[in-house]
Amino acid sequence: MKYIRYLIMFTLSALCGAATDVTTVEKWGVFELEFKGPAEGNPFLEVRFGAVFTDGASTVVVPGFYDGDGVYKVRFSPGSTGDWRYETKSNRWELTGKLGKFTATPPGSGNHGPVHVQNTFHFAYADGTPFKQIGTTIYNWTDTPEELQEETLRTLAAAPFNKARMLLTPQPTPYQNRFSPARWPYAGSPPHAWDYARFNPDYFRHIDARVVQLRELGIEADVILFNPYGKFGFETMDAAGDERYVRYVVARLGAYRNIWWSLANEYDFLRTKTDDDWNRLGTLVQQCDPHQHLRSIHNGSIIFDHNKPWITHVSMQNGAAVEEPGRAEMYRGVWRKPVVYDEVKYEGVTQYRWGNLTGQEMVHRFWSGTVAGTYVGHGDYFSTVTEDTWTSFGGKLSGQSAPRLAFLRTILEQSPAQGIDPIDKWQEVNTGGVPGLYYLTYFGHSTPTEWSLKLFKNGVSDGQRYQAEIIDTWAMTITPVEGEFVTKKLDNYHYVDVAGRVVKLSGKPGIAVRVRRIGQDGKPAANVLPND
Amino acid sequence: MKYIRYLIMFTLSALCGAATDVTTVEKWGVFELEFKGPAEGNPFLEVRFGAVFTDGASTVVVPGFYDGDGVYKVRFSPGSTGDWRYETKSNRWELTGKLGKFTATPPGSGNHGPVHVQNTFHFAYADGTPFKQIGTTIYNWTDTPEELQEETLRTLAAAPFNKARMLLTPQPTPYQNRFSPARWPYAGSPPHAWDYARFNPDYFRHIDARVVQLRELGIEADVILFNPYGKFGFETMDAAGDERYVRYVVARLGAYRNIWWSLANEYDFLRTKTDDDWNRLGTLVQQCDPHQHLRSIHNGSIIFDHNKPWITHVSMQNGAAVEEPGRAEMYRGVWRKPVVYDEVKYEGVTQYRWGNLTGQEMVHRFWSGTVAGTYVGHGDYFSTVTEDTWTSFGGKLSGQSAPRLAFLRTILEQSPAQGIDPIDKWQEVNTGGVPGLYYLTYFGHSTPTEWSLKLFKNGVSDGQRYQAEIIDTWAMTITPVEGEFVTKKLDNYHYVDVAGRVVKLSGKPGIAVRVRRIGQDGKPAANVLPND
Lengths: 532, 532
Hints:
- Two copies of one chain form a homodimer.
- By secondary structure, the first copy, chain A, is α/β, with parallel strands linked by helices.
- Helix content of chain A is 21%, strand content 28%.
- Chain A has ten helices and 33 strands.
- In chain A, strand 13 and strand 14 (193-199) form a beta hairpin.
- In chain A, helix 7 packs across helix 8.
- The radius of gyration of chain A is 25 Å and the shape is globular.
- The N and C termini of chain A lie far apart (55 Å).
- The A-B interface holds A 301-303, 305, 307, 318-321, 323, 326-327, 330-331, 333-334, 336, 351, 353, 425-427, 429, 492-493 and B 301-303, 305, 307, 318-321, 323, 326-327, 330-331, 333-334, 351, 353, 425-427, 429, 492-493.
């Protein structure tokens, strides 16, 4: 808090003076300032540095960071186009009162801005483009040999995932007996001889670069600040060490638009921190991040109080909760925030029961979460000995789910922008969509041999026209049902097809039906209600 | 708040003086004081009255109430045996400084004290006796003709229920076209001409009496303070009216040990109050009830934030949540408080889909909730026209579930005192119990034809001896499996029977298996771990 307050105490009057530098950066890109400053003593502790940016309409106080060798940086991601001016602030005169300006230009192709919460339960990029989360997990990928990291990026480029969960500090695993991480987050040496008051800029420069590479692949980096696995000491620093770490990480990474903050993985397995500690640190992230990225905390077996105001969405571990849609909906209603089932067990073959899902079951869990109005994360864990798995270290995918998740992603990208919500909560749990417009019914493990139209009354009236398609979630086929369905009222709750048409199904598991309203142009509607 | 503070301002010095009255009352019984005082003006608004009770060890400030005709009362339920002294407090001299004493004697048969939360997810009476909730719902029973109320009491006397949910203020229904409630909570006349500053003591004396009758039947009275159905205006009073009502009700009823406070039914259907209003009123109940009864709030379709400190347990409406145990567990973990699924749809035949459960399905929902470590409530709604149903008005039960719930109650009363908890959360959702001691597995709608022992590792080691029984939840039979099961380790997670015994099941739905550890005496253990 002190640091932020310190910066705010400066006046903005100097911003009217002459600027010293002019350049351009994309809206939601990264504008980086670099200055030489003191290198003596411990700059991480002793030098406060940052800048105030304004475009006249808004003023943003942005903390900077020390990048080693007497170099100080501040990174800012402008949220609007046009001219911006800045003035640096510091407790050292040589870093104080540096003035400048730049111009934020319209975002380039593929730049939709940071992701935020939209419509209570969903996500969208800042430019309004819906973000339909298909996540994966690659905890330690940035600690592996360079060659493996490059392979991971190649795999991601061909994979369906648009969010990746990754640890920010290393954890030891059997696979690491074959290599030692090339960099560590603090000055010192492994396993325990760290100076928690001196970050290792090289370590974080590497993270910076990887985050940018994910960004260029269209992947959100769900960066996990604390984890209980490390046993290197990063998880048991004192309160001052934790705060310094949070401030440093947020200052370094916060300007990358694809950052999400995950405060901890399996927070409850880290016995040295209490709920109060997590709330203090989560609130700190909220306060010191001028870019206001998404914030969550991920559980082991004890569920956090996600009503806390610093939490933007729920990052849930509970595989049982996505075994069927009726369960998946339940947490959603509790917190009235987006729910991402980030850990639902992993597709794999392993001695651990949390890593033994078949590809079919992984795909099933994504679909169960989807029709319940929630989002799901993937893991791939095919190793019983060294644990050199995708989900631990990246590399190659071994499972069969990824192509089916790509198929699901296509379905989602064709779904209404506002998101899929339960149509008739606590009643017909297998159907999500938008009333009177779009319905996605998923039969899960059941194997019906026929289907007929039956829509809950909300948004429906007599004489509406719908088109239906049969989706095989495993075979990745979409088979249109010939002709149209026309609604007529059945009873106080439902509408059915006026002709009573019955459609044959294959009798296989993993079948879904997509029902879309037909607009005046005779085509199925997606994002806008057709004119009746 | 003002009232309570006013009372506290008095000193206790006078309590050392001579007492004016001596009597006895059971611990957890009701000690009632009555005084004549001013009848002019509006005593409900103008006279503050109460008493301070002390047994030397604890001091309890108890608000009193005006009972009409110049009569003032204060009711206190002593929580410990021995000698108690009191001194009245008032803003009128004639009601001030009345001294007295009484002796609290040991509780009589059937008096276990008030129910409180125990072991995070469960309930117990104050004397430690477990309270295994089997609830029912009789919303308007106190508004019906006397004869019907008497029939309701006779029905309850023969029914399995140990908690009844009831509205404290009337709601109109089609059935009421045949009669008008004999009493109303306020002075004035229906439907809307009420003086919200003048309670009708006769109305509340009637409630007092009915609560006492429930108590004598061993039934907790889950009294619902506000409801959205009335349309008589009691649900749309101003903040001062709400507060006056809460204080009056708590002062009158709080000394009855079987009281539970339910702040509202379907709180979210009452559009004139916000979450802040409910939290203010819930906190008021917490603050002005010296007897600290259980407190909850019941939802319609929007789930309340049950983390609020004034809420002691979750009173949930969500029928879908008890369709299977995996769902039922989910809310439990969210709030780490007892979950009572008070409304899971009603057994009945009606035009409404919330009242169409078969008896089998009602029993199934109780069992699903039970093995998930939660509690369930019953409703009985057999009427399509006048709605003169058990759940609205009492009278007779029409459904088939009640005898099966009596059977379940017996099972619960034989279960461990600490309560049934999920044995292997998020993994084997159909089994609840106490690790290494007691296991209750419920197969629900599935119809297995055989069963064999498989216990999660917690609390289990090689060579433990268990006895098994097959329970038919609908036929109400308990069939012992001959012989014993002896454990041996199967893998990292489970133990099985050393002899690999397989038990035939009937292949019917609604079957459960009860597995109990055999103690040194050769009998199945229930409440204490046998010596190994």
